[in-house]
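Q: What structure does this chain adopt?
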Amino acid sequence: MAAYAVPQFNNIKSYLESQLEKSLLRFITCGSVDDGKSTLIGRLLYESKMIFDDQLASLKNESKKFGTQGEEIDFALLVDGLAAEREQGITIDVAYRFFSTDRRKFIVADTPGHEQYTRNMATGASTADLAIVMIDARKGVLTQTRRHSFIVSLLGIKHVVLCINKMDLVDYDQSVYEEILSEYREFASDFGFESIQAIPVSALAGDNVVTNSARTPWYDGPPLMEYLDTVEIRSDAAEKPFRMPVQWVNRPNLDFRGFAGQIISGSIKPGEKIRALPSGKSSTVARVVTMGGDLEEAVEGQSVTLTLDDEIDISRGDVLCADQSPAEVSDQFQATMLWMSDSAMLPGRSYIMKMGAREAQMQVTEQRYRVDVNTRAHEAAKTLDLNEIGVVNIALDREVAFDAYRQNRRMGGFIVIDRMTSETVGLGLINFALRRASNIHRQALDVTKDLRASMKGQKPVILWFTGLSGAGKSTVANIVEKRLAAMGRHTYTLDGDNVRHGLNHDLGFTDADRVENIRRVGEVAKLMMDAGLIVLVSFISPFRAERRIVRQMVDEGEFIEVYVDVSLEEAERRDVKGLYKKARAGEIKNFTGIDSPYEAPLAPEVHLNVGAMAPHEASDLIIERLFAAGILDV
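A:
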């Protein structure tokens, strides 16, 4: 143990200088629940002398209260800091810990083993250089072991330490160790790992953690600490082309304009040409500025401010690249995605993609397949549920600069954010751009929407009727259209039932199909409005997110949401089609209001309480709204 004691220094300055000279290794522990990940990290911290006396005293007290080892120290409590973790004896959140030896510095992420918290594990793995995969020797390779290993490989980690733990509970049986190792190597054979170092350990007893254990004379490899101290992690980021996402446009006064960010690959010098993406404009670096003064060269990992010879337009989220080796630019990609939300990923729904400092609206345009984490077979699926991994096509509302994730982790990874809750619901890795995107360009047309509308003597608009089945949407929409026709207005009604006989005949009533149903109808309604029509759309359209997407397709004031409000009891009482009765009997699945939710509008332009008014009275309110909005004043 003496070899891993922290060296003594006469002053803080010499200690800090010694730390700067050491290399840094980031690693994670992962695997199934209760495999001993937290205990192993606690043991490493203890053995590397990174626990102060007061912490050790507190740990002993906590071990008596929350521990699982009787009178012995429970090392897992060093990293399981949340009250819920201590009460349940599990890891929930990612716990980061720093420790060092006389050879190297370490940042370790202790990640949860429970399937429910797989998203937290992926977060910890995203910045790691090495993964310790824990396996309980009594249980062997489990589904979560496979899932975590698959995620580790997807996220580009090339070095794995396979810690077969709790060897003391199988009497340090070599055959158990070798059987687990053989199964794991076969499973992970095509994951692209550069090294898999297997070590039989007992994190609780300390076997093969810091020194080789006499209880495993058949193991002739290094103990865990020695391996972590000596493993070579080769980073080729410095050799890759220059990339620097712009975090901040630095403009302290009229005489200085610089672009601040961290260099994530390559290097840069004054006088070298760069290209700003996605604009594609080029310039030459004038200065490389830091708080400590200008640099003659900046390299990967450094945070700097670049000033340029030319005043080109660059904003936060843009990427500065080597002029002769720029990143790619696209707005459509194929990506591998890990879904991290209880609410399923729905193709066609609008999400936010965040990649570095750049944000864009994102839709999954096609779910290509889902991956079985046990067999890695490609399975047909329309959605992704919690912790599922799949390959999808995505489309953005703007172009972004990127490199494929396998070429540059920092330039090809992104997270997915729910637009309503701001919750992070997924992470993605860009595989490649969809080349067809670069071959499609919008054609400029001389006859515009305004010209078509003026020929009809009206302002175009979308009247979007939403509400439960049986609320009276179609009835009210039909009356409104007849009144508009009597005024000489040019209209068209898109009715939910009618459209499902043609355009959307291939769609069912799952959440994914409902989203696609509204996406298609929204596109058609937009085209009809572009033709100068007043378009009446009568659809249940149960989800706020999809109604908002259609609203965002058109200009301000061109979408009027009409909420045809009736209680579920009143809608069932009317039930002219007998649908509620069938839904209650289980004959119709995914029926809105029964076993599928309806999200009522929060601030509709027109709110019709049709339980207290006749259809003609409801139509009066809509016509009044159209006059008030200037639609019918033309």
